[in-house]
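Dear Dr. L.,

I hope this message finds you well. Following up on our conversation about the binding site, I have prepared a predicted three-dimensional model of the protein together with 9MR. For your records, I am including the exact sequence and ligand specification that went into the calculation, followed by the C-alpha coordinates. Please feel free to forward this to your student if that is useful.
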Amino acid sequence: MDPIEQTAAPEEEKERALPEPSVQTDIPSLMESYADYFPIGAAVEPFQTTGLKAELLKKHVNWLVAENVMKPDAIQPAEGSFNWENADRIVKFAKESGMEVRFHALIWHSQVGAWFFKDADGKPMVDETDPGKRVANKKLLLERLDTHVRTIVGRYKDDIQSWDVVNEVIEPGDPGGMRASDWYKITGTDYIETAFRAAREAGGPDAKLYINDYGTDNPVKRDRLYELVKEMLANGVPIDGVGHQTHIGILGPTVDSIIDSMQKFSELGLDNLVTELDMSIYAWNDRRDFGADIPADVLKKQADRYRELFEAFKANKDILSGVVFWGIADDHTWLSSFPVKRTEAPFLFDKQLQAKPAFWAVVDPSKLP
Ligand code: 9MR
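The resulting structure of the complex is given below.
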Protein backbone atom coordinates (compact mmCIF):
# COMPACT_ATOMS: atom_id res chain seq x y z
CA MET A 1 0.00 0.00 0.00
CA ASP A 2 1.11 3.51 -0.72
CA PRO A 3 2.64 4.83 2.56
CA ILE A 4 0.69 8.04 2.20
CA GLU A 5 -2.58 6.13 2.33
CA GLN A 6 -1.55 4.23 5.47
CA THR A 7 -1.56 7.25 7.72
CA ALA A 8 -4.56 9.50 8.07
CA ALA A 9 -2.74 12.41 6.47
CA PRO A 10 -3.99 15.89 7.20
CA GLU A 11 -5.71 17.56 4.26
CA GLU A 12 -2.72 19.72 3.33
CA GLU A 13 -0.40 16.72 3.18
CA LYS A 14 -2.77 14.95 0.85
CA GLU A 15 -2.70 18.04 -1.33
CA ARG A 16 1.10 18.02 -1.32
CA ALA A 17 1.16 14.40 -2.43
CA LEU A 18 -0.63 15.33 -5.66
CA PRO A 19 1.49 15.58 -8.82
CA GLU A 20 2.59 18.96 -10.10
CA PRO A 21 0.26 20.47 -12.69
CA SER A 22 1.25 19.89 -16.31
CA VAL A 23 -0.27 20.18 -19.75
CA GLN A 24 -0.84 16.86 -21.51
CA THR A 25 0.50 17.04 -25.04
CA ASP A 26 -0.62 13.55 -26.07
CA ILE A 27 -4.38 14.09 -25.90
CA PRO A 28 -6.70 15.52 -28.57
CA SER A 29 -7.48 19.21 -28.66
CA LEU A 30 -10.98 20.06 -27.46
CA MET A 31 -11.47 22.87 -29.99
CA GLU A 32 -10.16 20.74 -32.86
CA SER A 33 -12.58 17.99 -31.91
CA TYR A 34 -15.39 20.54 -32.29
CA ALA A 35 -14.07 22.34 -35.37
CA ASP A 36 -17.03 21.14 -37.48
CA TYR A 37 -19.54 22.37 -34.92
CA PHE A 38 -18.76 25.60 -33.04
CA PRO A 39 -15.92 27.43 -31.31
CA ILE A 40 -15.07 26.45 -27.74
CA GLY A 41 -14.24 29.16 -25.25
CA ALA A 42 -13.11 29.76 -21.69
CA ALA A 43 -13.37 32.60 -19.18
CA VAL A 44 -10.04 33.84 -17.89
CA GLU A 45 -8.39 36.33 -15.59
CA PRO A 46 -5.36 38.20 -16.97
CA PHE A 47 -2.94 36.24 -14.74
CA GLN A 48 -4.02 33.05 -16.52
CA THR A 49 -2.63 34.25 -19.83
CA THR A 50 0.89 33.14 -18.94
CA GLY A 51 2.55 29.87 -17.94
CA LEU A 52 0.89 26.47 -17.89
CA LYS A 53 -2.65 27.84 -17.94
CA ALA A 54 -1.88 29.72 -21.13
CA GLU A 55 -0.55 26.50 -22.68
CA LEU A 56 -3.69 24.61 -21.70
CA LEU A 57 -5.88 27.34 -23.16
CA LYS A 58 -3.92 27.51 -26.41
CA LYS A 59 -4.25 23.78 -26.91
CA HIS A 60 -7.95 23.49 -26.22
CA VAL A 61 -9.90 26.72 -26.85
CA ASN A 62 -10.26 29.26 -29.62
CA TRP A 63 -12.40 31.80 -27.80
CA LEU A 64 -11.77 33.79 -24.62
CA VAL A 65 -13.93 35.90 -22.37
CA ALA A 66 -12.84 37.95 -19.37
CA GLU A 67 -14.14 36.48 -16.12
CA ASN A 68 -14.12 39.92 -14.46
CA VAL A 69 -11.92 42.56 -16.05
CA MET A 70 -14.33 43.78 -18.72
CA LYS A 71 -17.20 44.39 -16.28
CA PRO A 72 -18.42 47.97 -15.76
CA ASP A 73 -16.57 48.64 -12.48
CA ALA A 74 -13.32 47.24 -13.86
CA ILE A 75 -13.39 49.33 -17.04
CA GLN A 76 -14.90 52.59 -15.77
CA PRO A 77 -14.45 52.69 -11.97
CA ALA A 78 -15.08 56.43 -11.86
CA GLU A 79 -16.87 58.61 -14.36
CA GLY A 80 -14.65 59.34 -17.35
CA SER A 81 -11.77 57.28 -15.97
CA PHE A 82 -11.30 54.22 -18.16
CA ASN A 83 -8.97 51.41 -17.18
CA TRP A 84 -7.99 49.33 -20.21
CA GLU A 85 -4.87 47.59 -19.01
CA ASN A 86 -6.33 44.27 -17.87
CA ALA A 87 -8.84 44.02 -20.69
CA ASP A 88 -6.08 44.77 -23.20
CA ARG A 89 -3.94 41.97 -21.78
CA ILE A 90 -6.63 39.44 -22.58
CA VAL A 91 -7.19 40.84 -26.08
CA LYS A 92 -3.44 40.81 -26.75
CA PHE A 93 -3.00 37.22 -25.55
CA ALA A 94 -5.96 36.10 -27.66
CA LYS A 95 -4.58 37.78 -30.77
CA GLU A 96 -1.12 36.31 -30.29
CA SER A 97 -2.70 32.89 -29.78
CA GLY A 98 -5.06 33.05 -32.76
CA MET A 99 -8.18 33.14 -30.57
CA GLU A 100 -11.28 35.30 -30.75
CA VAL A 101 -12.54 37.29 -27.75
CA ARG A 102 -16.10 37.86 -26.61
CA PHE A 103 -17.02 40.74 -24.35
CA HIS A 104 -18.67 40.27 -20.93
CA ALA A 105 -20.47 42.50 -20.01
CA LEU A 106 -21.31 46.04 -21.10
CA ILE A 107 -24.18 46.55 -18.64
CA TRP A 108 -24.88 44.63 -15.42
CA HIS A 109 -26.51 45.44 -12.07
CA SER A 110 -23.56 43.87 -10.24
CA GLN A 111 -19.90 44.93 -10.43
CA VAL A 112 -20.90 48.42 -11.53
CA GLY A 113 -19.68 51.69 -10.03
CA ALA A 114 -22.14 53.40 -7.66
CA TRP A 115 -21.30 56.68 -9.42
CA PHE A 116 -23.53 55.70 -12.35
CA PHE A 117 -26.61 56.03 -10.13
CA LYS A 118 -25.87 59.28 -8.29
CA ASP A 119 -27.41 62.57 -9.34
CA ALA A 120 -25.45 65.79 -9.90
CA ASP A 121 -25.51 66.43 -6.12
CA GLY A 122 -24.20 62.98 -5.27
CA LYS A 123 -27.58 61.73 -4.05
CA PRO A 124 -28.73 58.20 -5.02
CA MET A 125 -31.09 58.58 -7.98
CA VAL A 126 -33.38 55.82 -6.70
CA ASP A 127 -34.27 57.95 -3.66
CA GLU A 128 -35.58 60.84 -5.75
CA THR A 129 -39.31 61.51 -5.41
CA ASP A 130 -39.63 64.77 -7.34
CA PRO A 131 -41.08 63.86 -10.78
CA GLY A 132 -39.12 66.54 -12.63
CA LYS A 133 -35.85 65.47 -11.07
CA ARG A 134 -36.62 61.83 -11.79
CA VAL A 135 -36.90 62.67 -15.47
CA ALA A 136 -33.57 64.51 -15.36
CA ASN A 137 -31.94 61.61 -13.53
CA LYS A 138 -33.14 59.12 -16.09
CA LYS A 139 -31.71 61.23 -18.88
CA LEU A 140 -28.37 61.55 -17.08
CA LEU A 141 -28.15 57.80 -16.39
CA LEU A 142 -28.95 56.89 -20.01
CA GLU A 143 -26.30 59.37 -21.19
CA ARG A 144 -23.74 57.75 -18.92
CA LEU A 145 -24.73 54.32 -20.18
CA ASP A 146 -24.50 55.49 -23.78
CA THR A 147 -21.00 56.90 -23.22
CA HIS A 148 -19.86 53.71 -21.44
CA VAL A 149 -21.08 51.47 -24.25
CA ARG A 150 -19.84 53.61 -27.14
CA THR A 151 -16.41 54.14 -25.60
CA ILE A 152 -15.84 50.43 -25.05
CA VAL A 153 -17.35 49.16 -28.28
CA GLY A 154 -15.52 51.88 -30.21
CA ARG A 155 -12.21 50.78 -28.72
CA TYR A 156 -12.57 47.05 -29.31
CA LYS A 157 -14.80 46.82 -32.37
CA ASP A 158 -11.99 45.59 -34.62
CA ASP A 159 -10.92 42.95 -32.10
CA ILE A 160 -14.22 41.76 -30.65
CA GLN A 161 -17.32 40.69 -32.53
CA SER A 162 -19.47 39.02 -29.85
CA TRP A 163 -20.86 41.17 -27.02
CA ASP A 164 -22.89 40.56 -23.88
CA VAL A 165 -24.71 43.87 -24.05
CA VAL A 166 -26.87 43.41 -20.97
CA ASN A 167 -26.55 40.71 -18.32
CA GLU A 168 -29.21 39.19 -16.04
CA VAL A 169 -32.06 41.65 -16.58
CA ILE A 170 -34.81 39.08 -15.90
CA GLU A 171 -35.80 38.08 -12.36
CA PRO A 172 -39.10 36.21 -12.11
CA GLY A 173 -39.40 37.08 -8.39
CA ASP A 174 -39.39 40.82 -9.05
CA PRO A 175 -42.43 42.84 -10.17
CA GLY A 176 -43.26 42.15 -13.82
CA GLY A 177 -40.42 39.65 -13.96
CA MET A 178 -37.89 42.42 -14.60
CA ARG A 179 -34.93 42.58 -12.19
CA ALA A 180 -35.53 45.52 -9.87
CA SER A 181 -32.01 46.89 -10.31
CA ASP A 182 -31.16 50.57 -10.12
CA TRP A 183 -31.02 50.53 -13.92
CA TYR A 184 -34.62 49.34 -14.06
CA LYS A 185 -35.92 51.47 -11.21
CA ILE A 186 -34.59 54.63 -12.82
CA THR A 187 -35.15 53.98 -16.53
CA GLY A 188 -37.62 51.07 -16.87
CA THR A 189 -36.55 48.92 -19.80
CA ASP A 190 -35.10 51.94 -21.64
CA TYR A 191 -31.59 51.07 -20.40
CA ILE A 192 -31.74 47.79 -22.30
CA GLU A 193 -32.88 49.45 -25.49
CA THR A 194 -30.32 52.25 -25.20
CA ALA A 195 -27.50 49.77 -24.59
CA PHE A 196 -28.30 47.71 -27.68
CA ARG A 197 -28.77 50.73 -29.94
CA ALA A 198 -25.50 52.30 -28.78
CA ALA A 199 -23.65 49.01 -29.24
CA ARG A 200 -24.99 48.62 -32.78
CA GLU A 201 -24.12 52.19 -33.74
CA ALA A 202 -20.61 51.94 -32.32
CA GLY A 203 -19.96 48.36 -33.42
CA GLY A 204 -21.52 48.40 -36.85
CA PRO A 205 -23.61 45.74 -38.59
CA ASP A 206 -21.16 42.89 -37.99
CA ALA A 207 -21.18 43.16 -34.21
CA LYS A 208 -23.14 40.27 -32.64
CA LEU A 209 -25.19 41.56 -29.74
CA TYR A 210 -26.45 39.24 -26.99
CA ILE A 211 -28.77 39.41 -24.03
CA ASN A 212 -27.19 37.11 -21.43
CA ASP A 213 -28.80 35.36 -18.47
CA TYR A 214 -28.69 32.32 -16.21
CA GLY A 215 -31.53 29.85 -15.68
CA THR A 216 -32.85 30.32 -19.20
CA ASP A 217 -33.97 26.66 -19.13
CA ASN A 218 -36.54 27.54 -16.45
CA PRO A 219 -39.80 27.99 -18.40
CA VAL A 220 -40.98 30.94 -16.30
CA LYS A 221 -37.74 32.86 -16.73
CA ARG A 222 -37.33 31.78 -20.34
CA ASP A 223 -40.80 32.95 -21.26
CA ARG A 224 -40.35 36.35 -19.60
CA LEU A 225 -37.08 36.79 -21.48
CA TYR A 226 -38.80 35.69 -24.68
CA GLU A 227 -41.58 38.29 -24.24
CA LEU A 228 -39.05 41.04 -23.56
CA VAL A 229 -36.89 40.19 -26.56
CA LYS A 230 -39.89 39.81 -28.85
CA GLU A 231 -41.18 43.23 -27.87
CA MET A 232 -37.74 44.79 -28.29
CA LEU A 233 -37.28 43.25 -31.73
CA ALA A 234 -40.71 44.57 -32.75
CA ASN A 235 -39.46 48.03 -31.77
CA GLY A 236 -36.36 47.64 -33.89
CA VAL A 237 -33.92 47.07 -31.02
CA PRO A 238 -30.87 45.33 -32.51
CA ILE A 239 -30.62 42.07 -30.53
CA ASP A 240 -28.85 39.22 -32.35
CA GLY A 241 -29.02 36.46 -29.82
CA VAL A 242 -29.42 35.02 -26.37
CA GLY A 243 -26.49 34.04 -24.18
CA HIS A 244 -27.43 31.06 -22.00
CA GLN A 245 -25.01 31.06 -19.09
CA THR A 246 -25.64 27.36 -18.33
CA HIS A 247 -24.33 27.14 -14.77
CA ILE A 248 -25.64 23.65 -14.17
CA GLY A 249 -25.08 20.70 -11.85
CA ILE A 250 -24.67 16.96 -12.18
CA LEU A 251 -28.33 16.54 -11.20
CA GLY A 252 -30.08 19.18 -13.29
CA PRO A 253 -31.56 20.84 -15.18
CA THR A 254 -32.43 18.40 -17.96
CA VAL A 255 -30.57 18.67 -21.24
CA ASP A 256 -33.92 18.80 -23.00
CA SER A 257 -34.93 21.93 -21.09
CA ILE A 258 -31.67 23.61 -22.13
CA ILE A 259 -32.18 22.77 -25.79
CA ASP A 260 -35.92 23.63 -25.73
CA SER A 261 -35.02 27.14 -24.65
CA MET A 262 -32.57 27.57 -27.53
CA GLN A 263 -35.18 26.32 -29.96
CA LYS A 264 -37.72 28.78 -28.67
CA PHE A 265 -35.41 31.75 -29.16
CA SER A 266 -34.32 30.54 -32.57
CA GLU A 267 -37.95 30.81 -33.65
CA LEU A 268 -37.55 34.57 -33.23
CA GLY A 269 -34.64 34.41 -35.65
CA LEU A 270 -32.13 34.72 -32.82
CA ASP A 271 -28.77 33.06 -32.38
CA ASN A 272 -27.91 31.12 -29.20
CA LEU A 273 -24.64 30.87 -27.31
CA VAL A 274 -23.67 28.89 -24.24
CA THR A 275 -21.72 31.60 -22.46
CA GLU A 276 -20.70 30.42 -18.97
CA LEU A 277 -20.81 26.64 -18.85
CA ASP A 278 -19.82 24.79 -15.69
CA MET A 279 -21.22 21.73 -13.90
CA SER A 280 -21.20 21.59 -10.12
CA ILE A 281 -20.54 18.15 -8.63
CA TYR A 282 -22.98 18.80 -5.77
CA ALA A 283 -26.73 19.06 -5.47
CA TRP A 284 -27.70 22.64 -4.65
CA ASN A 285 -28.58 21.86 -1.03
CA ASP A 286 -25.72 19.46 -0.47
CA ARG A 287 -23.40 20.92 2.14
CA ARG A 288 -20.76 18.16 1.99
CA ASP A 289 -17.22 18.82 0.83
CA PHE A 290 -15.53 15.95 -1.02
CA GLY A 291 -12.12 17.53 -0.43
CA ALA A 292 -9.32 16.20 -2.61
CA ASP A 293 -11.01 12.80 -3.06
CA ILE A 294 -13.92 13.29 -5.37
CA PRO A 295 -15.73 9.93 -5.56
CA ALA A 296 -15.26 8.13 -8.87
CA ASP A 297 -19.01 7.70 -9.30
CA VAL A 298 -19.47 11.48 -9.06
CA LEU A 299 -16.87 12.07 -11.78
CA LYS A 300 -18.56 9.38 -13.88
CA LYS A 301 -21.95 11.01 -13.45
CA GLN A 302 -20.43 14.31 -14.49
CA ALA A 303 -18.86 12.69 -17.55
CA ASP A 304 -22.14 11.05 -18.57
CA ARG A 305 -23.97 14.32 -18.30
CA TYR A 306 -21.32 16.31 -20.17
CA ARG A 307 -21.52 13.70 -22.90
CA GLU A 308 -25.30 13.97 -23.15
CA LEU A 309 -25.06 17.75 -23.16
CA PHE A 310 -22.44 17.97 -25.92
CA GLU A 311 -24.24 15.38 -28.03
CA ALA A 312 -27.30 17.63 -27.86
CA PHE A 313 -25.19 20.72 -28.62
CA LYS A 314 -23.74 19.03 -31.70
CA ALA A 315 -27.17 17.92 -32.89
CA ASN A 316 -28.32 21.55 -32.55
CA LYS A 317 -25.33 23.28 -34.09
CA ASP A 318 -27.62 25.11 -36.50
CA ILE A 319 -29.10 27.14 -33.66
CA LEU A 320 -26.06 27.23 -31.36
CA SER A 321 -22.98 29.11 -32.48
CA GLY A 322 -20.54 28.69 -29.60
CA VAL A 323 -19.88 27.06 -26.23
CA VAL A 324 -17.87 28.94 -23.61
CA PHE A 325 -16.84 27.43 -20.27
CA TRP A 326 -16.71 29.73 -17.23
CA GLY A 327 -13.10 28.74 -16.62
CA ILE A 328 -10.93 25.91 -17.93
CA ALA A 329 -9.63 23.71 -15.06
CA ASP A 330 -10.87 22.84 -11.58
CA ASP A 331 -8.13 24.86 -9.85
CA HIS A 332 -10.02 28.09 -10.57
CA THR A 333 -13.80 28.39 -10.33
CA TRP A 334 -16.23 30.83 -8.72
CA LEU A 335 -18.14 27.74 -7.48
CA SER A 336 -15.48 26.93 -4.89
CA SER A 337 -16.90 29.76 -2.78
CA PHE A 338 -20.54 29.70 -3.96
CA PRO A 339 -23.07 28.88 -2.55
CA VAL A 340 -20.64 27.73 0.17
CA LYS A 341 -16.89 27.24 0.38
CA ARG A 342 -16.09 23.68 -0.75
CA THR A 343 -14.00 21.73 -3.23
CA GLU A 344 -15.58 22.06 -6.65
CA ALA A 345 -14.70 20.36 -9.92
CA PRO A 346 -16.98 21.72 -12.64
CA PHE A 347 -14.73 21.49 -15.72
CA LEU A 348 -13.14 18.98 -18.11
CA PHE A 349 -9.66 19.39 -16.59
CA ASP A 350 -8.75 18.77 -12.95
CA LYS A 351 -6.64 20.87 -10.57
CA GLN A 352 -3.45 19.42 -12.04
CA LEU A 353 -4.78 20.40 -15.50
CA GLN A 354 -5.24 16.73 -16.43
CA ALA A 355 -8.11 15.51 -18.59
CA LYS A 356 -10.98 14.19 -16.46
CA PRO A 357 -13.51 11.53 -17.46
CA ALA A 358 -15.68 14.47 -18.56
CA PHE A 359 -13.02 15.45 -21.12
CA TRP A 360 -13.03 12.01 -22.71
CA ALA A 361 -16.81 11.93 -22.59
CA VAL A 362 -17.05 14.93 -24.90
CA VAL A 363 -13.97 14.23 -27.05
CA ASP A 364 -13.72 10.44 -27.41
CA PRO A 365 -16.04 8.32 -25.24
CA SER A 366 -14.24 5.13 -26.36
CA LYS A 367 -11.31 6.24 -24.17
CA LEU A 368 -13.43 6.63 -21.04
CA PRO A 369 -11.72 4.87 -18.12
O1 9MR B 1 -16.81 34.33 -11.91
C1 9MR B 1 -17.08 35.65 -11.48
C2 9MR B 1 -16.54 35.85 -10.08
O2 9MR B 1 -15.12 35.82 -10.08
C3 9MR B 1 -17.02 37.18 -9.53
O3 9MR B 1 -16.61 37.27 -8.17
C4 9MR B 1 -18.53 37.25 -9.63
C5 9MR B 1 -19.06 38.57 -9.10
O4 9MR B 1 -20.45 38.62 -9.18
O5 9MR B 1 -18.92 37.11 -11.00
C6 9MR B 1 -18.58 35.86 -11.50
O6 9MR B 1 -19.05 35.75 -12.83
C7 9MR B 1 -20.46 35.79 -13.01
C8 9MR B 1 -20.74 36.38 -14.37
O7 9MR B 1 -20.12 37.62 -14.50
C9 9MR B 1 -22.22 36.50 -14.62
N1 9MR B 1 -22.90 35.25 -14.44
C10 9MR B 1 -22.62 34.54 -13.19
C11 9MR B 1 -21.11 34.40 -13.01
C12 9MR B 1 -20.81 33.59 -11.75
O8 9MR B 1 -21.25 34.27 -10.63
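In brief: The longest strand covers residues 271-280.

With kind regards,
A. P.
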